[in-house]
């Protein structure tokens, strides 16, 4: 191979590497710019009272209507109802809480108390009220609860059955 061909091949190789690196940097920069709205906190700080950003999901926007609890908070005797969507069970508290705060929306984590609740024939009935206790966790701006106690309230207001 002649010296001239080697020089041409080297230049083409350098040009190809330079183009590939430039293109990859351009793509990375564009994805970072387009993938995140200005001023958006990526650590799930979309809280009640803020407008939804372009990158915020509809679920996160709707969850702002409910009070957000902190990790590890323990709830005792909260009255409300359950809504079952496939395998997911969500608990909604009744009206305002004793401290005047908004309603709660808590996604129930699987455990034996949730299984006992699901085995109840009236579990899917939104008219049935439940008294729950448990520990709250949080993940991606949603609250979850590990149920410690689930009591079905009779229509008269006394507790009917206990799932422990």
In angstroms, what is the radius of gyration? 27 Å
- Largest beta sheet, briefly? 5 strands, mixed, barrel
**What is the level-2 CATH architecture name of the largest domain?**
Beta Barrel
Q: Tell me the fraction of residues in β-strands, as a range.
A: 25-35%
Describe this structure in words.
This protein is an alpha+beta fold. It folds into two domains: 1-34; 69-163, OB fold (Dihydrolipoamide Acetyltransferase, E2P) (Beta Barrel). It has helices at 3-35, 58-63, 112-119; strands spanning 74-85, 88-93, 105-108, 129-139, 142-153, 159-163. It has a five-stranded mixed barrel with strand order 1-2-3-5-4. It starts with a helix and ends with a strand.
What are its keywords?
five-stranded mixed barrel; OB fold (Dihydrolipoamide Acetyltransferase, E2P); 164 residues; alpha+beta; 2 domains; 3 helices
Topology:
Blueprint: H1 3-35, H2 58-63, E1 74-85, E2 88-93, E3 105-108, H3 112-119, E4 129-139, E5 142-153, E6 159-163
Parallel strand pairs: 3-5
Antiparallel strand pairs: 1-2, 1-4, 2-3, 4-5, 5-6
Entry summary:
With 164 residues, the protein is of the alpha+beta class. It is 29% helix and 30% strand.
């Amino acid at each position: 191979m002649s010296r001239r061909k080697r020089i041409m091949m080297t230049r083409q190789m350098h040009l190809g590497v330079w183009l590939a690196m430039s293109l990859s940097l351009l793509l990375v920069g564009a994805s970072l710019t387009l993938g995140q709205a200005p001023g958006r906190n990526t650590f799930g700080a979309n809280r009640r009272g803020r407008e939804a950003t372009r990158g915020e999901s509809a679920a996160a926007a709707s969850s702002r209507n409910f009070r957000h609890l902190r990790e590890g908070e323990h709830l005792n005797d909260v009255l409300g109802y359950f809504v079952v969507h496939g395998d997911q069970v969500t608990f909604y508290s009744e009206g305002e809480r004793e401290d005047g705060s908004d309603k709660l929306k808590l996604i129930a984590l699987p455990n034996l108390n949730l299984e006992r609740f699901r085995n109840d024939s009236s579990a899917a009935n939104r008219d049935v009220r439940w008294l729950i206790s448990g520990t709250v966790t949080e993940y991606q701006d949603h609250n979850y609860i590990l149920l410690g106690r689930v009591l079905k309230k009779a229509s008269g207001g006394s507790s009917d059955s206990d799932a422990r």
